[in-house]
Amino acid sequence: MRRRAWQGREVVLAGEQWSLLAHARPSPEADAQTAELLRAIARAAQRELTAHQREVLLALAVDGVPIDVLAERLNTTRGALYKTLHDARRKLRRCLAAEGLLPPTTPRSG
């Protein structure tokens, strides 16, 4: 389906844009920080999330499974999946903030 969506479309990159792509590469320091953050996220997900939260987070955020498809496969609703994803992300943010990798989270007022 993805290939078919692009069938018949022309993708044009002007010659000038190629030089921009060459400079878009992150620095080695940025790569190291990203790798450290990803390892911390993986550790936190293993430690802090339930098996269901990990399954939903990976399917939606990493694998790109459409939420409607996942809801059908898990025999649940979109709303329940949104809530599960929200709770998982909140737990991960809290854990990463405690490790000093993110600014501390503050409760919303209202």
Quick rundown:
The chain contains six helices and no strands.
Structural features, described:
It is built from six helices and no strands. It has a domain at 33-102: Arc Repressor Mutant, subunit A (Orthogonal Bundle). The model has no long low-confidence stretch (mean pLDDT 83). Helix 3 (28-48) crosses helix 6 (78-98). It is flat and about 45 Å long. It has helices spanning 2-6, 15-22, 28-48, 51-62, 67-73, 78-98. By secondary structure, the chain is mainly alpha-helical.
Are there runs of 5+ residues with pLDDT below 50, and where? none
Q: What's the CATH H-level superfamily name of one domain?
A: Winged helix-like DNA-binding domain superfamily/Winged helix DNA-binding domain
* Portion in beta strands: under 5%
Q: Mean of the pLDDT scores? A: 83
* CATH topology category name of one domain: Arc Repressor Mutant, subunit A
Q: How would you describe the shape?
A: flat
The total of beta strands comes to 0
Largest sheet: none
Structural class: mainly alpha
Percent helix range: 55-70%
CATH architectural designation of one domain? Orthogonal Bundle
Order of helices and strands: HHHHHH
Distance between the termini: 44 Å
Radius of gyration: 19 Å
CATH hierarchy, class of one domain: Mainly Alpha
Count of helix runs:
6
